[in-house]
Amino acid sequence: MAEMTSGPAPYIYVSTRLRVRKAKLLRPEDYLRMLNMSLPGITRYIEELEYKTEIDELSPSFSGVDLLEVALSWNLAKEYQNVLSLAPGTMHAFTAAYLRRWDIANLLTILRGRTQGFKPGKIKEVLIPAGSLDRVALDRLVTEESPERIVEGLRGTPLYPVVQRELPGALETGSFARFENELYKQYYANLIRVARSGIKGGHEFLQYILLEIDITNMQNLWRLRAGGAVEEVHDFMIAGGRIPVSELERIAAIESVDEIVDSLKKRTNIAQLQDAVEELRCGCSVREIESRLTRFKLELMDRMSRRYPFSISPVLVYLERKRYEVYNLRAIARGKAANLAPERIQEYLVI
Q1: Is the dihedral of CA 150, 155, 159, 161 positive or negative?
Q2: For residue 76, how many C-alpha atoms fall within 13 Å in the half-sphere facing its CB?
Q3: What CA–CA distance (Å, rounded) separates 218 from 224?
Q4: For residue range 269-297, what is the model confidence (pLDDT) as tens digits?
Q5: 75 CB contacts (<8 Å, ≥6 apart)?
Q6: What is the pLDDT of residues 32-60, one digit of tens each?
Q7: Which end of the chain is more exposed for a tag (fewer CB within 10 A), N or C?
Q8: What does the longest C-alpha to C-alpha distance in the chain come to?
Q9: For the whole model, what pTM was predicted?
């Protein structure tokens, strides 16, 4: 049944499988319970769930927060690869395009790790080989002797033109922020191109992409305002969303938060997204604003998956929910290792 590639049957099969997997993900109360556990207790707790294979395999070589970090990376990569192998036909094409975000994440991890003096073996432990760069390709990049050699190792890949153009400036300034943003601009432009290429199911895929771009731009807008870098808004906004970059530039120059919220609401035609924007009046920290917007994004994706139950939407919902499960577990593990209070750790969670 899973090998069928035409008609609705394979889509129904994959969507049903992923709804079952989504139901097994950790719930908010699970995270709150872990906040009051020790690091070994957290390891035992998740070992009884979906992380047993990785923890059992890695425990002879790792312990403490390192064990959790590596186990989470391995589990996420395995899960993404499993989902990609399940997805048939056009669903596979959309899933593969989405997962290329991990090429960017892995490249940034390698470059930051090497420039900060981490050994290749340490960097390999936290890579997520879920994109087009497989473990062999990533292992080769990690062991390159210089950033220039890493660039050459990417020749022929979609990342190469941006990396060749932008990396020298990043290395010169010591900041990867602009470099990272340019990579994601290319990533989203490619997703829009795939969604509009005429492939069946592209409409549903496009709705997710537009939502993600709008949420990401609003998060970047708040971050730049907080950092006093409003003049850089144009450079850090991703084109293609429902709110034009030119409008975001205008909004960024407004001093009043209430006026900013009113302007953003006028530019969004999705009632639920307007609800998310309304919460930006809270006067919260940038971190809390980002978490609130992320939660709304996940909730909206859930609604989209219910509206389009046999499309790419349930796949994307599961992949995103799984990504934030690992994000939350990492935040808890690192917080515990740093002896942070439970209340402080909770601030970093997306639940």
Answers
A1: positive
A2: 27
A3: 10
A4: 767 677 778 878 888 888 888 888 999 99
A5: 50, 51, 53, 54, 326
A6: 999 999 999 999 999 998 999 999 999 99
A7: N
A8: 57
A9: 0.92
